[in-house]
Structure formats: C-alpha cells, structure tokens
Write a structure and sequence with these properties.
This protein has 3 helices and 7 strands, in the order ααββββββαβ. By secondary structure, it is an alpha+beta fold.
C-alpha cells in the first residue's frame, strides 16, 4: 500500500496532527523571515548614524530642473558637499546620473543656469517674447549652435546664458550680427 493513502487516513482520524504540522511550518517560515529582518537591522545599525540627502530620480543634463527625492543614507556614504535642502526650481549645473546624491557642484548657483555658463547681451529686436528663465535655442549663420536660458529680459537688450563650450561660436555670431533666438515651448 502506498504511503499517501496511509497519511491521508492518519490525518483524517487525527486532524490535530495535521494542524500541528501546519503550525510548525508556519513558525519555521515566520522565524526565518524574522531572522532575515533582524540581520538587515543589524547590518544597517552597523553603519551608524544616517543623514537625509537628496537623490536624483532620473538622469539630468546641465540646465534641467533637478528632480530629486529625500532619502536616508549612512553618514559614511554621504559626500561632505551633499546638499541638505533643495529648492523646487533648482537647476542642474552639470549632468547627473540616476540615483546619484546631489552635491553643491551639481546645482546652479543662482538657480537660473549653471555657474560655468557664459552670459551674453543680445539685441532684443526680433527676439521672441521671453521671460527670465525661458529655455532658448541659439541660431546663427544658418546653423543651430546651442541651447541656453534667458537671464535678464528688457525691451532693449536680452541677456542669454549659454554653456561655456558654445561661448566662442556665440561671440562670433554676435560680432556678425547673425544671432537668432528661438523660445522652447
């Protein structure tokens, strides 16, 4: 006779035995989960005190608005220059990878554009209606040169900030009087 029919008959006659085995399995699973949680807690506590930092939630390039979330990291893992507060309109001063802790060098100083960008005065005639902080594309001599941001807007002159690697071409196009600005939607 097979073992399974015998076990079925045993459990049918003694249901307490079945529930005893079920309970023992449940206790074994619970204790292994509790042990794993305790081990995680011990390892986390071994790092010591934590600090709240801002962590980037998606890859950013210079000029993008910084999208980050607060998270707690062990102090041993936090860079000394990690920012403790981040304004809602903070601008990335350089490219930042997904999951990277935001440090002071990652955020533009004045909130409009990165600190290493160059600001040029551009005649306002023929420029689209811009407001401070608008993203613009700079065109000249039939070519798209780079993207920048409107820094100061008046009726006579616009100040446009561009990345440092675009400054030479922007200067040349300004000297030729061939600058055209296009506002991004």
């Amino acid at each position: 006779m097979s073992i399974f029919p015998q076990l079925r008959m045993l459990f049918a006659r003694r249901p307490w035995l079945y529930w005893l085995i079920v309970g023992a399995c449940g206790i074994a699973v619970w204790s292994s989960v509790a042990g794993a949680q305790a081990q995680v807690t011990r390892r986390r506590d071994s790092w010591g005190e934590t600090r709240t930092v801002w962590v980037v939630s998606e890859p950013l390039v210079a000029g993008d608005t910084v999208r980050a979330a607060e998270d707690d990291y062990p102090i041993a893992m936090v860079p000394a220059s990690a920012v403790s507060s981040l304004s809602a309109d903070a601008v990335a001063a350089r490219s930042i990878a997904d999951g990277e802790i935001v440090v002071e060098a990652d955020v533009a100083v004045d909130g409009l554009f990165p600190a290493d960008w160059v600001v040029f005065a551009v005649p306002a005639d023929g420029a689209p209606g811009l407001t401070t902080g608008d993203v613009v594309s700079v065109f000249g001599s039939g070519h798209a040169w780079c993207d920048g941001r409107a820094a100061v807007v008046s009726e006579v002159v616009l100040e446009v900030a561009v990345p440092a690697d675009c400054a030479a071409s922007m200067s040349a196009q300004l000297a030729l009087g061939a600058i055209t600005l296009a506002r991004h939607p």
